[in-house]
Amino acid sequence: MAVLKLQSLKPRPISELSMKVGSIRCYVSSCRAVLLPRFGGPEVLQLRPDVPVPDLKPNEVLVRARAVSINPLDTRMRSGYGRSIFEPLLPLILGRDVSGEVAAVGASVKSLTVGQEVFGALHPTALRGTYTDYAILTEDELSPKPASLTHVEASAIPFAALTAWRALKSTARITEGQRLLVIGGGGAVGFSAIQIAVAAGCHVTTTCGNQSINRLMAAGAEQAVDYTSEDIESVIKEKFDAVLDTIGVPDTERIGINLLNRGGHYMTLQGEAAALSDRYGLPIGLPAATAVLFKKRIQYKFSYGIEYSWIYMRADSEGLHEIRRLSEAGKLSIPVEKTFSITQVREAHEAKDKKQILGKVVLELD
C-alpha cells in the first residue's frame, strides 16, 4: 500500500492522522511528543504539540499510540545514562514500549495492515521513542496485539519480555527440565523470565523482596527467596543450568557464578558498555567495555567452565510473536500498578524516581 505524507496540512496534534484517499493512506506532518532536550530530572521533559512525523522507510509502520510503558531505561536515559552516545543527538523522544493501531505502513510491509491493533518495542538505542501520539517502528518490532489484553496491559510487556526472551531463548537456549535462577524476579524482566521459563517446562528459583514472593510463586517459581531477610547462599542448595541476574552488582554476580553448573550460562542486564563510554568517552569507553567483557568470559570459562554474557533487548520477530501467544494463553503478563495521562509524564517519572510506585507504570494517550 502506498503512503503519502501531506506536508501542506496544518499540524493537528491530537487528531487522528490517518484518512482514506482512494487506495492511499495519508497523514499529516506533526503530532504531540514528549521531548528530552537535555539530561536531568523529570522537570526537563517537555510535551510539545507539533513535533515532526518523519517519512516512513519501506519497512516501517506508523502506530497511533494508545499506551506506552515507562521502563527503567527511560528514567536512566533521562538522567544521563548513555550520555556519550545520545548527547550529540538531543533532543530525543524517550520510550520503548507501545500498544496502539497501525495508522500507515511502508511500501515493503506485508504482515500488518492499517487499522490493526499492534504492540511492540523499539531497540534501546532508538532516538525517536514511543512517548508520542504517533510512533514509528519497523515491521519486525511489532506484532498483532493479544486480543485478550487492553492497550494498557499490552504496552507493559514487549520490552521487558523481549529482554528476558533474548537471555533465556537466544543466549542460554533453555530446554524443558533445566533449572533457572532469576536474581531479582520482582522486576518486569525478572517476572517475564520466570513466566517464559515455566512455560518452557523449566524449574525456576528466584530472589526478590518480601512483597513479591506470593506473586512470583503464583507465576510458577518453585522457590522464592527474600533477599532482605535470608542469606541466599545458605537457603538455595541446588545448582542451576542458567542464571539471569537483573541486579548485576558484584555480590549478585559472585552468587550467580557460584550457583551455576559447569556448562551453564550467567547473564546480567548490567553490561558496562554505556557506563564506561559515559565515563571515558566513546573512543576509550567502548574498547574498554569490550576488553572487560572478553576478560570475564575467559576468566569464568577457565575457572568455572561457564558462559558469561551481557544481555540487551533487541528486535526479534519470532520472539515477539511467541510472547503474544503466551500472553493470549494467560501464561505471560506484567501487572500495571498505575497509569498516568501523557500530559502527566513528569509526575510519572518523579514517582518512579522516588520509588513511590514499585510496579509497572503506563502512560495513556487519548
TrEMBL record:
Gene3D superfamilies: Medium-chain alcohol dehydrogenases, catalytic domain, NAD(P)-binding Rossmann-like Domain
Domain (Enoyl reductase (ER)): residue spans on this chain: 40-363
GO terms assigned for molecular function: oxidoreductase activity
Top-level taxonomic group: Eukaryota
SMART domains assigned: PKS_ER (SM00829)
Protein name per its UniProtKB record: Enoyl reductase (ER) domain-containing protein
